[in-house]
Amino acid sequence: MLQIVHEQFGTVGSILVALIAFTFVILWIAAISGIQEYPYSEKRKLFITVLFILIPPYALIWLGKDMYRQYKILKLEKD
What's the burial of 21, exposed, middle or buried (CB within 10 Å: 0-12/13-18/19+)? Predict the structure, then answer.
């Protein structure tokens, strides 16, 4: 598999592909652990966690929305 990626993208491209894939995995794990901080019921947390695992783009979208929500909260506190 690594050989195919290297043949398709070259050395620099394969390093960038690996870096982007690693970043997405880290963000996906951050979203899964971030949902555990919310005061949802255990049943809802379990449902959302399973949803995050089965549909990884949903976890990344949720993480982006959560980061934007926290940015707005911090901006209002600063003013």
Answer: exposed
Segment 34-68, tens digit of pLDDT? 888 888 899 999 999 999 999 999 999 999 999 99
Structure-token pair, residue 35 = 């949902």
How confident is the model at residue 36, as a pLDDT? 86
Helix (H, G, I), strand (E, B) or coil at 37: coil
The distance from CA 11 to its chain's CA centroid, rounded to whole angstroms, is: 26
Distance CA 75, CA 35 (A): 22
Q: Give the SS3 label for residue 68.
A: helix
